[in-house]
Structures are given as C-alpha cells and as structure tokens.
Amino acid sequence: MSIEVAVILFIAGVILVVKGGDLFVDAASWIAKASGIPSFIVGATIVSLATTLPEMIVSVLAALQGKTEMAIGNAVGSVTANTGLILAVAMIFMPIVIQRKDYVKHCGLLIAAAAVLLGFSLSGALSLAGSLILIVIFLISMAENVRNAMKQQEDGERIQTTRKETGRRIVMFLFGALGIVAGSQLLVNSGSALAAFFGVPERIVAVTMIAIGTSLPELVTTITAIVKKESSLSIGNLIGANILDLTLILPVCSFVSGQALPVSAQSLALDMPACLLITLLALLPLLFKEKGSKMQGLSLILGYSLYLFFVL
C-alpha cells in the first residue's frame, strides 16, 4: 500500500468512524426511548456506551488481528489526548468551575483506573486480575451515572412514533454501526501501513493519529460547550469517556484475545505513566480548587506536547 493510499484510507476511516458514531448514538438513544426506557437510563448508560463504540471497535479489531500495541495505544492514547489536549483547550478558552461533590467520585474512579492499568501491567501484560478490577470500576461508574441521573428523573413515557420514522431510525442505527466497523477496519489497516512506511512501531501511530482521530467527537462536544459556556458539559463528557476507555475497552480486548493483553516496554515506560500523570495534573487541581485556569490548561498542553516529543 502506497503512502498516498494509506493517508486517504486513514482520513476516510476517521470520517466513517466519527459520522457513523454520530448516527449510531442518535439512533440508539431514540430507539431506547421509543421502547419506553426512561430518559435518565438512556442518558446515563446507553448514550455513554454508544459514544465509546468507535474506540472500542478500533481496539477490538486490532486485538483480534494480534495488533495489541495498537489496541492498547488507541485506548490509552485517547485518554491522554482527551485530557492533555481537549480538556486543556476547554480550560484555556472558558472558565472551568465545578462542585467538588459532583465530580469527586468520577475523578477518583478515573485516577484509580489509570493507576490499576499501570500497576497490573508491570509484568509485561495486563493480567486477568487487572482486567477484572477495571470491569468493577466500570460497573461502579455506570451505577453512579444512574444514581445521579435518577435525581433528575424524567418521564419514562414512550416517544410517539410512526412505522416510517421507526424504519428510518433503524436504518440510521445499522448504517451508523456499519460506518463504525468499516471505518475502524480502515484505521487499523491504514495505521499499520503508515507505521510500516515510516518504520515506526504501530503503537506510535495508535497513540497519536488514531487516538486523536477517534477523540474528534469529544473535541466537537467540547467546542460546543465552549460556545455555549457550559463547562460542566465538557468536563463531564471527557471524564466519562476516559473512564470507559480504560475500564471497558482494554478488558474487552483482553477477553476477546483469549489471553493477558501483552504490554510493550514502551507503553509501560511512557504511555501509561504519561496517561496517569496528565490525568493527575488535570484532576487534582480541579478537585482542590474547584476551578480550572488558563495556566493549568497551558500546563496540560505543555505536558501533552512533551509526551508527543518523547513518543516521536
């Protein structure tokens, strides 16, 4: 595969994943509500899980093809990009003010997930025990989402719909899912080709190009939050996405591969520690000061830039 073809396929993959994810989330949410599932359950579980599907499919396909560095790099790299790049942009362009009580549990869960991932990978593979602990953190996070959503519980009546509208939403759902799968496969294949062309490990393409590409939905949400001056929307979205990336994607990759997920020395020495450190740099000041500043945002950008410097 030539470099030109690989780049075109990579861009096409990003577009398919992002647009497919958008269609899938909208359709899945509508179908769930039309089935009579309460809105608070839809928002707290189905939408958040569907939003993470692009990263999930990319990593699972990579794991099934034995490209474990790409599987891990995509998940860990997405968390680092969400925090060191997207959250940093939010802090620079709008005042971030939070209530500690609203975020302390999820911040704690995210920090715990990053620490568990690093600690249980020190042997050179994400152990079964580590995967199970991450799944437990995922379940706690989902339960907390539902508990918080129940405080603002809405009417659970079904959406009034027609057969034509139902059919249209089902087609959207199927095309969205197909777009995610096809786009993810393009990202995996073109990412491997780009890595081979530049003579670098697949991990490097995964933690940079693929991770940033699959994080575009979070970037769009953050830009929307900046325009609307809704900092809580941005923070909540990013923390939730990061928790799912670490606690759901990697254990699933380990389970589908049928073995402990091998972790490269480079991931262990650089990617995972950077993910944990940037997460701490972002969240601890927020929890203690209950606000994020432009200076903190610039510090996160600097930290992420240094990470990319050492990666490349």
TrEMBL record:
GO terms for cellular component: plasma membrane. GO terms for biological process: intracellular calcium ion homeostasis. It is a multi-pass membrane protein. It comes from the Bacteria. GO terms for molecular function: calcium channel activity; calcium, potassium:sodium antiporter activity. The keyword Membrane applies. Keywords: Membrane, Transmembrane, Transmembrane helix. InterPro entries: K/Na/Ca-exchanger, NaCa_Exmemb, NCX_ion-bd_dom_sf. It is found in: Membrane. Residues 6-142, 170-311 form the Sodium/calcium exchanger membrane region domain. The chain crosses the membrane at residues 36-64, 76-98, 110-143, 170-198, 204-227, 239-261, 267-288. Coiled coil: none annotated. The keyword Transmembrane applies. Its main location: membrane. NCBIfam families: calcium/sodium antiporter. This is Sodium:calcium antiporter. It comes from Holdemania filiformis.
